[in-house]
């Protein structure tokens, strides 16, 4: 079953509680939270205090995506703040296996994100330490970018690598209903969407439409 993870980066932060309530009521599966430090990516977003506030308000698991330098320094902080799933970028971790073990030891599920230019083979020796792979279908840093079509082939490659392991395969960046079926057909199990959901007149309806589109699986 495809999971839908609304990305709060595109939500109205002045009415964030209402936005969360609407997507939760519509059946969203996760809340995707982008943390950016202004160094690893050219943008600055939120930190642990906001995660703590979200944890108090949200009923859904928090899927926290760290787009930061030296993520290993912050693992325990974000897990304590309320992250259920913590994803780090392969490009930011010189000791990736150690960082993934650190996440699991702290009590969260561990994910690795791959930027568009990063090959799936970087995962070869950490496959048994993973709970999720996040394929970025835009270059990380800003919401509202256009989906990169080569992401379909990359998702197929990652799904082949993970094999029968119980590893979620998530895709994030420019995801819209017109991409959903091909993404599911390529092997994606989680669709992260920001502007396609929170930029819609009815975010709850947008969640339902994205899920319905994904269920019409086509060959990628």
Task: Describe this entry's structure for a reader.
The longest helix is centred in the C-terminal third of the chain and has 13 residues, at 203-215. The model has no long low-confidence stretch (mean pLDDT 95). It is globular and about 45 Å long. Strands 1-8-7-6-5-4-3-2 form an eight-stranded parallel beta sheet. Helix content is 35%, strand content 19%. The chain contains eight helices and eight strands; from the N terminus they run βαβαβαβαββαβαβαα. With 220 residues, it is α/β, with parallel strands linked by helices.
Core attributes:
TIM Barrel; globular; 220 residues; 19% strand; 8 helices; 8-stranded parallel β-sheet; alpha/beta
Please write out the topology.
Layout: E1 3-6, H1 16-25, E2 31-36, H2 48-57, E3 62-67, H3 75-81, E4 85-89, H4 96-106, E5 109-114, E6 132-136, H5 151-162, E7 168-172, H6 177-186, E8 190-193, H7 195-198, H8 203-215
Parallel strand pairs: 1-8, 2-3, 3-4, 4-5, 5-6, 6-7, 7-8
Helix pairs in contact: 1-8, 2-3, 3-4, 6-8
Beta-strand portion reads 15-25%
Which CATH class applies here? Alpha Beta
Secondary-structure element pattern, one letter each: EHEHEHEHEEHEHEHH
By CATH, the topology is TIM Barrel
Q: Total domains, how many? A: 1
Molecular shape = globular
CATH architectural label:
Alpha-Beta Barrel
The total count of strands amounts to 8
Summarize this entry quickly:
This protein has 220 residues and is α/β, with parallel strands linked by helices. The protein has a single domain (3-215), classed as Aldolase class I (TIM Barrel, Alpha-Beta Barrel). The model has no long low-confidence stretch (mean pLDDT 95).
